[in-house]
Amino acid sequence: MAYTNALAAYKETRIRTASPGQLIVMLYDEAVKQLETGLEFLNKSKAGKIDPSKIEVFGKAMIKSRDIITELMVSLNLEEGGEIAQNLFALYTWFNRELMEAHMNLDRDRIKTVKDQIDSLRGAWIEIASKTNSEERQIEGVNIAG
Question: Does a structural domain hold residue 46?
Fold first, then answer.
């Protein structure tokens, strides 16, 4: 019980102290994790036969990933973000549509395509977040990044 509370406190502190870029990366991390859970379930299914006792795990993973993508959508500032924000919005909309279809049709390929693209965006955001954090540290007068 104490371990669970400590872990929850750590996660909460990590989220509260994260920069906006780090929060975006965390969302991408969790989306990739959820999509991998969904793919694992489908890959374990024998010859397309789904184990009814485990379908809930798949459903929750797909819903969580769509919820995360929706959170990414609402975090966009379409006025100040310009074309990049609009393109991300369109991409996130497509992700959600693909995942909804994949969920209904148990389509591995669609899930994998979305997961791979989210993972690619995640890599870009990691770079952006690290540069932003490095610049913020230098502005404060000390470069602790190295």
Answer: yes
Quick one: average pLDDT of 21-49?
A: 89
Asked, for residue 13, whether it belongs to a domain, the answer is: no
Give which of 94, 116, 139, 107 is closest to 43, Cα–Cα. 107
Helices 78-105, 108-139: inter-axial angle, 10-degree rounding? 150
Query: What's the CA dihedral at 62, 68, 71, 75 to 10 degrees?
Result: -140
pLDDT, tens only, 128-145: 888 876 555 444 444 444
Backbone angles phi, psi at 49, to 5 degrees: -90, 120
Range of the domain at 72: 20-132
pTM: 0.78
> What's the total number of domains in the chain?
1
